[in-house]
Amino acid sequence: MMHIYTQDAQGQFVRTEAIPACGWIQLQDPRPEELHQVASATGLPFAFFEDALRPEERPRVERQGQACLVLLHEPCRDERVGAIDEDVKYRSLPLGVIVAGDLIVTVSRQVSVISPDFFQRHGLRLAPGRQAGNVMALVEGIAQAFGGVMQDIDADIASAEAELARSYRNRELYALLYLNESLIYMTTALKNMMHVMNRIRHDDYLPLGPDEAAMFEVAQAELDQAHAVTHISQLNLNNVMDAYGNIIQNNVSHIVKFLTAVTIVLSIPTLIASIYGMNVPLPYQEEPGAFTAIVVGMVVISGLVAWIFQKKRYF
Known about the structure:
By secondary structure, the chain is an alpha+beta fold. It has two domains: 2-249, Beta Polymerase, domain 2, CATH 3.30.460; 250-312, Methane Monooxygenase Hydroxylase, Chain G, domain 1. The chain contains seven helices and seven strands, in the order E-E-E-H-H-E-E-E-E-H-H-H-H-H. The protein has helices at 32-42, 46-52, 116-121, 131-164, 171-203, 210-276, 290-311, and strands spanning 2-7, 13-15, 23-28, 60-64, 67-77, 90-100, 103-108. The chain has a seven-stranded mixed beta sheet with strand order 2-1-3-7-6-5-4, sandwiched between helices. Helix 4 runs parallel beside helix 6, helix 5 runs antiparallel to helix 6 (210-276) and helix 6 (210-276) runs antiparallel to helix 7 (290-311). It is rod-shaped, with a radius of gyration of 33 Å. The protein starts with a strand and ends with a helix. Belongs to the CorA metal ion transporter (MIT) (TC 1.A.35) family. This is Magnesium transporter.
């Protein structure tokens, strides 16, 4: 899907069919013919588009001629995953931002958080000399999107913890494992984007004037904050997984101990009844109160053993 935008005098985004000299081309899960159309019309390296559509590509910055590729990662939710214990629900996927003169192109396989509403909320302009600042605003918006996904992950962790507190199954622990894998995706993506920002600062991939430099500092601060929150959540989740792994093991051990104690208590009357059920002469078998005495004896002995187990907290 390809959308081409320019901006009018009132700051409103206007869809157009022709590729302008100053504007924004949005490519989301594009068809091959759309990629070739944009590449041939703008002269941008086709490899930039291919790299942005590879899920395994890491964030980086690269320049070829007048074109600069800032390859970022943005968080996404896998809508095919229903429950959090089925598979990894949260991942990060590449978002390519290509800057060539006054033209900016965004390329992604997934539906991106970058939209015309995003540009207008941040007061961005598709104007000559403004594209470096627009890239910084995109980085800031993506960092904020990571923060929003982290809130969802924290809520899922709390939900899984509530189930684990009374669970003796592994299913809830799998939920934490998948959430931990999501945090690994987030932490790695944010760390790599921080390296990208450092390269932009030191290697002059984008011209940063005073306004763009201020936006750069804000974007970098957002990335640092998102990375710190994600890293802390990952450490906390690792501790929670270790603790609840032991809790599940203790729950299972308690059940086994309880069933063993019940089996021992029930085996006492079974043993006595088996002895007096033998088809041989037995003591007191002719006594009229023998049956009652045997039953009372079984109850007393079983009760005594159960009381001992209760004192030892086997029940």
